[in-house]
Amino acid sequence: MSIGLAEIRLARVALGWLVEPGNRAVYQSVSRHGPVRVLDGLLSAGLDDRLRRAAGARLGAADPRALAEAALERAERLGARVVVPEGDEWPRQLEDLRHLGAGETDPLERDVAPPLCLWVRGPSRLDEALGRSVAVVGARAATPYGEHTARLIGYELAQRDWTVVSGGAFGVDAQAHRGALAAGGLTVVVLASGVDRPYPVSHANLFDRVAEDGLVVSEWPPDTDPFRHRFLIRNRVIAAATRGTVVVEASARSGALQTLRRARQLHRPAMVVPGPVTSAMSVGCHESLRKEDVRLVTGVGHILEEVGRVGADLAPPPRGPEHARDGLDPPRRRLVEALLTRKPLPLDELAARAGVPLRDAMRLVPGLVSGGFAAERGSGYVLAPPPDRLLAGAGPPADGPANPAARS
Amino acid sequence: MSIGLAEIRLARVALGWLVEPGNRAVYQSVSRHGPVRVLDGLLSAGLDDRLRRAAGARLGAADPRALAEAALERAERLGARVVVPEGDEWPRQLEDLRHLGAGETDPLERDVAPPLCLWVRGPSRLDEALGRSVAVVGARAATPYGEHTARLIGYELAQRDWTVVSGGAFGVDAQAHRGALAAGGLTVVVLASGVDRPYPVSHANLFDRVAEDGLVVSEWPPDTDPFRHRFLIRNRVIAAATRGTVVVEASARSGALQTLRRARQLHRPAMVVPGPVTSAMSVGCHESLRKEDVRLVTGVGHILEEVGRVGADLAPPPRGPEHARDGLDPPRRRLVEALLTRKPLPLDELAARAGVPLRDAMRLVPGLVSGGFAAERGSGYVLAPPPDRLLAGAGPPADGPANPAARS
Fold first, then answer.
1. Residue A363 belongs to what H/E stretch?
2. Of B136, B164, B163, whose CA–CA distance to B150 is shortest?
3. Are A144 and A54 in contact, with CB atoms under 8 Å apart?
4. Residue A83 three-state SS
5. B189 φ, ψ to 5°?
């Protein structure tokens, strides 16, 4: 009965060839029946009409499994890999997209489901690179002001250990990536073409530099062209992968505003950098700022205020004894920081708060206990030393107060 | 029993010399007992201690009535006049300030009562000039961007028949006045010194140009110096006199932000023009925009959207037969436009909606009826021709529909 990860991967890649990413009907079918059965059904005409219509144009044109195998081989030669929801590396936050598109009839608004799979080039783990990430997007025809601001924000986010995610385009996108690289930080390019088809072509070198530490990501298999509508489909991934989206310069109809709208739909912070009212490249920014739920930000301080509200890992900066945790890698550090609560956390809650997959938490937490960072307490875990002492500076231990009156 | 306007004016001027403008205790006493009795009481030690303390420093130093007479004579020689609440020309909206300052202990926050009187230089009626007005204020050390934007906003407001009110300072204030003058519109300078004491001195020519059509206004008698704290006292008048306040460039601690805050306290639209995040002259603007109740505006279109919500005189632009009303002067036009409702308006409600003093409405409305602009209906007034016909284009008369079904 059990289906291997390789077979799942192949089925998802094949489905991704049959339908454009984001297709809601296919996503729902895959959620219910699994990718292998959905692919089998499509190929043997056993599934419902809606799905067959979604895949219609490509059904029968070629053998999707053979094409998927060829794509996977090509990716391997390129040093790229496929990441699927069934694997460890999948960024869970992308699944938030499943709440979008219900009841919509316009395909552009309806077909915004989570990706079936992601093609990834680069050494970082995708889920870890995106765990603490911010999208910085904006105008291709950016002004020097916009380019300067995007670069500075990229630089300062990376300095603070935040991954900068963008679309690799001219102007704001590229400067955000470059700023992050200049700070020696991680940055992720989400392309609307295959990971071996840099777009714009002149950014091939930039993407190669990104892929040295960070990641180049796409929903489309290698060798896919960046058709116009794919940028709009792609934008939802940038919004969903990150803790929040910042727009730096946008003309009235900029695609960056669509990414911002997706962020709002996903209840992620939607942030905009203002500019001179005399600049056409800020018209879209200012119109957005006149809406509800869009926050004006002038720099990284404001951005971190917004994204810090979302997760636990922007807790007050650690002081004193817990500096040892600075030496931990990101998932371990997130687990330890998630323990900054007064009551013990069961393992599954701890994993959820830390944004770490449960199976990773099961693997990592015992080491944190033996390393003196965490301690078991009942059926859960607490910070070691106890949080009372850490937070109050020198309070009594939580389970044996020397002077109860001092607590009031 | 009845006290003449000249006596009232003298008493208010004398009280204004005894206490700084805005004093809440004096304002409340004057509201209750009238200015003449309050002055008598102060001079004869018959009033309560709180008032005597407010006037303490100056009581006994000179004869306030003699000083007031001298100031009035001096003003007359300058071509200036005193406007008091008991007279026709008083801008009623200033009385909204009486709601502010309750329960405050800091004098700067407590003593923000309406002015006792205003010294005015210029040919326009003060109430009419301020009836359709917007405050445009901002940094003295404005950048070329801020100066350009302030001037453009001043110009475009004046083009649309809005009075531009500001403080006459270097930078944004001066450019807003200049923009209004360039459009041939009305502008009002509210000074923190006597109307004969231009501050800054180099703006003496600017103020003279303003006073050719518009007004130079002050709460302080002629020859008063612009002490530092007087600018803050003055700001409440700019906010209260206008339909809304626009800030164009403001550093983090700009006085313009105080005017903005007063506008918010008065529930008037508080508007801010953004700028580059790299500019220190926009830091105060952006911080304000991150607060609630502050609207980002990029130009006059946005500004009129905001101030248009406040009064009736931004009703849909008149069409067809009512173009004749364009030939009316502002109070008459406001009265006619206030009639754009379906039910007859009693005279007092009509006056309130039009923002016209009741005694003026009593004087003006009969002429509007005989001129064919308005008609009596029961105990109120309606637009003539009837609003149904005007608004629907060619509907049946309100009181005798030819085809009732056509109304649904």
1. helix A358-370
2. B136
3. no
4. strand
5. -95, 125
Query: Would you state the structure tokens that stand for residue B317, as one six-digit string?
Result: 């632009």
A275–chain B Cβ distance below 8 A for any pair:
yes
d(CA A201, CA B37): 85
Helices A358-370 and A347-354, packing angle to 10 deg: 100
Annotation: CATH topology of A315-407: Arc Repressor Mutant, subunit A (1.10.10)
For the domain made up of B313-403, give the CATH fold.
Arc Repressor Mutant, subunit A (1.10.10)
Q: Could you tell me the residue ranges of all domains in chain B?
A: 5-116, 119-307, 313-403
> Which of these, A1, A28, A30, A33, lies nearest to A15 by C-alpha position?
A30
For the residues B184-192, what does the mean pLDDT come to? 97
Query: What number is the ipTM of this complex?
Result: 0.71
- What confidence category does residue B407 fall into, taking pLDDT thresholds of 50, 70 and 90? very low
Band of pLDDT at residue A404, cut at 50, 70 and 90? very low
pLDDT tens profile B360-398: 888 888 878 877 778 888 788 887 754 333 333 333 333
Closest CA to A172 of A195, A148, A196: A148
What letter would DSSP give residue B345? Answer: B
Crossing angle of the two packed helices B347-354 and B358-370, in degrees rounded to 10? 100
> What is the CB neighbour count within 10 angstroms for residue B360?
18
Contact A296 B286 (CB under 8 A): yes
> Is the CB of B29 inside 8 Å of chain A's CB atoms?
no
Report the DSSP beta bridge partners of residue A159. none
CATH number of B119-307: 3.40.50.450
Helix (H, G, I), strand (E, B) or coil at A86: coil
Q: Angle at CA B72, nearest 5°, toward B78 and B17?
A: 120
How many residues does the structure list for chain A? 408
φ, ψ for residue A400, nearest 5 deg: -155, 70
Nearest to A298 among B148, B273, B277 (CB): B277
Q: Tell whether pTM > 0.80.
A: no
Q: How many CB pairs under 8 A join A and B?
A: 53
Give B297-307 pLDDT, tens digit per residue: 999 999 999 99
Query: Quick one: pLDDT at residue A112?
Result: 96
Residues paired with residue A273 on neighbouring β-strands, in sequence order: A248
Q: Which residues, in sequence order, are CB contacts of A348 under 8 Å at separation 6+?
A: A358, A361
**Continuous H helices in B191-255:** 204-213, 228-241
Smallest Cβ distance to B277: which of A278, A286, A299? A299
Name the DSSP letter for residue B382.
Answer: E
pLDDT of residue B166: 98
Residue pointed to by tokens 């209750």: B32
Q: Is B283 in the A-facing interface, judged by CB distances under 8 Å? A: yes
Q: Which chain B residues are closer than 8 Å to A302 by Cβ?
A: 290
Contact A245, A238 (CB under 8 A): yes
Q: Which of A136, A298, A300, A306 to mutate to test the interface with B (most CBs of B within 10 A)?
A: A298
- Compute the half-sphere exposure of residue A44: CA atoms within 13 Å on the CB side of its CA: 7
Specify the pLDDT at position B60: 65
A299 at the B interface (CB within 8 A)? yes
- Distance of alpha carbon B70 from its chain centroid, rounded? 27
Instruction: Inspect the interface and report whether the beta carbons of A286 and B298 lie closer than 8 Å.
Output: yes
